[in-house]
Structure formats: structure tokens, C-alpha cells
Amino acid sequence: MKATIDWTGNASFKATSGSGHSVQMDGPPDHGGENLGPRPMEMLLMGLGGCSSFDVMSILQKSRQDVTDCRAELEAERADAVPSVFTRIHLHFVVTGRGLKENLVKRAVSLSAEKYCSASIMLEQAGVEISHSYEIQSAD
């Protein structure tokens, strides 16, 4: 896996993935940025949410669950001192569908957290406390 980060002025950078996709990152105005994109630590948090969401949906689809929507809401706390690393992250999944079985949704969230989500497992090994919850909404 590869990526490149190109400085685009002030506190702004263009990140390009090895697969050719780009995203603009920027700092806040009080740090020389123009607020043109997410902060790098926000990208890390969004990456974690994307990684775990990918797992949850894959597991639910393989379980033949009729999912119509899945949203992961992430909240993170960071250390007050430099480096301002993540100390806690909570992922809350809102899974919407028809006739969803709670045990299968719970299993998908657990498997992602404990076995499949590389980002989550890596951050936990670095000392970040990560928790998960879910709720099921009916699309009926």
C-alpha cells in the first residue's frame, strides 16, 4: 500500500492513495490553514470508521441480512498534551433494514472489532481504548 502527500500551500496538503484517489487535507485557520478539507487526525478517524463499516456490511451481506442503510458515528477523545494522540474512540453503528436479526448485527460489529478491522486492532494495540455499540432501525 502506498500514498503520496503533496503540499499545496499554507497548511494544506493533497493526499493521493496508491489506487489513485485524492483528498485535500487542511489545517484550521488559527494554524495557517484555510479549512479546505479535513484535518489529518480526522482522516485517521474516518479511516477507522470506513474500515469497520466495510467489515460490518460485508458480514451482514454474507449473513443475508436485508440492510438498507448503515451509518457509523464516531466520537474520539485526544490527549491534552503533545502528541495529542487518540485516547478513546467510540463507534456507534446505526443499521437500518428489513427483518434484521439482532444477534447477526451484534456478531458483525463484534467480528469487525475483534478480528477483521485492521485499523481498530492497530489503534487498540497502540493503547487507544475503543468501544462499539449498535442500534437497529426498521425500514418497514
Automatic annotation (TrEMBL):
Which residue windows does the record flag with biased composition (Polar residues)? 7-22
Give TM regions: none
Q: Which species is listed as the source?
A: Marinobacter xestospongiae
Q: Protein name, please?
A: OsmC family protein
Looking up InterPro entries in the UniProt record yields:
KH_dom-like_a/b (IPR015946), OsmC/Ohr_fam (IPR003718), OsmC/Ohrsf (IPR036102)
Provide the coiled-coil residue spans.
Answer: none
- Region Disordered, residue ranges: 1-35
